[in-house]
Design a protein that fits this description.
Blueprint lengths: L6 H10 L13 E2 L2 E2 L1 E2 L12 H15 L3 H4 L12 H8 L6 E3 L3 H12 L8 E5 L4 H13 L4 H4 E4 L10 H10 L4 E7 L11 H10 L3 E5 L18 E5 L12 E5 L46 H17 L1 H20 L8 E3 L12 E5 L3 H10 L2 E2 L1 E3 L3 E4 L8 H15 L1
Parallel strand pairs: 3-13, 5-6, 5-7, 7-8, 8-9
Antiparallel strand pairs: 1-2, 4-10, 9-10, 11-12, 12-15, 14-15
Helix pairs in contact: 1-13, 2-10, 5-6, 8-9, 11-13, 12-13
């Protein structure tokens, strides 16, 4: 498509957008009484208007049924983790038995590392990206220490080549091959939070398995954003947070993926709890943990109903919109944003887009590396009604989300950003 830098063109794209009605299904924050340009769905997704309905139904069932809500609520609480399986499986490219909603991301990452980081005397190293999200870094470090190992020796961090901002897939594969005799685990953020790079999950997984290592991914910035085929690509495990693109509320539901090749491998070590136990014996209070098959066997505690209700509300919208449709719009939105930003006169004197230009290597986020006055520019656009994200030391992250952002949003952001850098 040939883009044009005009409001008229942006509105034309919005008029032709088959997903345009979904915007009205979300609450948009306001700045000075006017709807904000909200480009931070990669940090916290907006609230769907049907969220209140879903929570109210659970509150009403709690009020009228008490404990009997576990069996007789509209959505019986005893089986609540099952209600999101179909939608989550579609979004991550999995079978419903391979996913389950539970806990928060870093809790789940720890639970999965218990099972899939099994260091030996010779194969004990974790390979990951340098500058991974801090919570992931802390998880890797503490897990390595838990096994009595030195993080400086056991964690391999890959950095981009000199003068580059993102990792090349061939360099990741080459590093896996180089360290294959020492590798126990390969684990990356599927979309790098700072640069917005979407890694080549299939090639990384293949290389990791060829090296005899388990392979897992943090999907915090990937789920609901980019196309995923976790089952087809034979990823061993993954986890995510639900409060970004899945719009599940602040601190909302996470979930896990465990490939079906591990579904009945009950010899994998795991931290057990009663909600992962054989449901036919769960209330018999017997000793001896018998894990459920599939991802359900990694559950520990009973399901948080209110948080789960928030996620179900958003997943209902995802089911109606469809990930393939959202991806098509996302590519157009982000492509239009890139076109406009790079049409600014002498733009490269002010900023560099460090997110890969290829649509297959990014989602809806563009990271703008500011070359001068970055914080001041960010403060100016904030005062002008833009809700974006500043990341130290010098990056502005902007993410036009296809569920609720418009092409006019993109054009208005471009104008305000252009004025700010001037």
């Amino acid at each position: 498509m040939k883009f044009e830098a005009s409001l008229q063109f942006a509105r034309k794209l919005d008029k032709e957008d088959p997903l345009r009605s979904f915007r009205s299904q979300f609450y948009l924050p306001k700045v000075k009484g006017k709807p904000a340009i909200y480009f931070t769905g990669n940090s916290l997704g907006l609230q769907p208007k049907i969220t209140k309905k879903f929570i109210s139904e659970e509150l009403n069932d709690w009020a009228s049924l008490g404990v009997e809500g576990h069996f007789h609520a509209k959505r019986p609480w005893l089986h609540y983790h099952q209600f999101s399986k179909k939608a989550l499986a579609k979004i991550v490219g999995a079978k419903s038995t391979e996913v389950v909603a539970m806990n928060q991301l870093t809790v789940n990452l720890h639970l999965l590392l218990v099972s899939f980081y099994k260091p030996t005397a010779t194969k004990y190293k974790i390979l990951t990206e340098a500058g991974a999200f801090s919570s992931d870094q802390y998880a890797f470090e503490s897990q390595v220490k838990f096994h009595g190992l030195d993080p400086e020796k056991a964690i391999i961090e890959l950095s981009p080549r000199a003068g580059e901002h993102t990792l090349r897939t061939e360099d990741i594969v080459q590093a896996i091959e180089k360290h294959k005799d020492e590798l126990a685990l390969v684990v990356f953020g599927a979309v790098q939070y700072y640069t917005g790079q979407f890694f080549g999950l299939r090639k990384i997984t293949e290389a990791g398995h060829n090296a005899g290592a388990f392979v897992g991914f943090d999907l915090a910035h990937a789920i609901g954003n980019v196309p995923l085929q976790l089952h087809q690509h034979n990823v061993d495990f993954a986890t995510w947070c639900g409060y970004k693109y899945l719009n599940s509320g602040p601190g909302g539901m996470s979930g896990v993926f465990v490939h079906e090749m591990h579904a009945t491998n009950f010899d994998l070590p795991r931290f057990a709890g009663w909600w992962g136990h054989n449901p036919r014996e769960r209330f018999q209070m017997k000793k001896g943990f018998q894990p459920m098959t599939g991802a359900d066997g990694w559950q520990v505690s009973n399901f948080p109903i209110m948080s789960g209700a928030v996620q179900l509300a958003s997943l209902e919208i995802f089911e109606k919109a469809g990930m393939s449709n959202l991806r098509k719009k996302s590519i157009l939105l982000t492509g239009y944003l890139e076109f406009l930003l790079t049409s600014i006169e002498n733009f490269n004197q002010h900023f560099t887009i460090i997110t890969p230009p290829s649509k297959t290597e990014r989602g809806c986020q563009l990271s703008l590396l500011m070359k001068k006055n970055g914080k001041r520019v960010f403060e100016k656009i904030t005062a002008d009604g833009v809700i974006a994200d500043w990341r130290e030391p010098d990056v502005i992250r902007v993410a036009p989300v296809p569920l609720y952002n418009t092409f006019e949003d993109v054009f208005q952001f471009y104008q305000r950003f252009k004025n700010a850098i001037r």
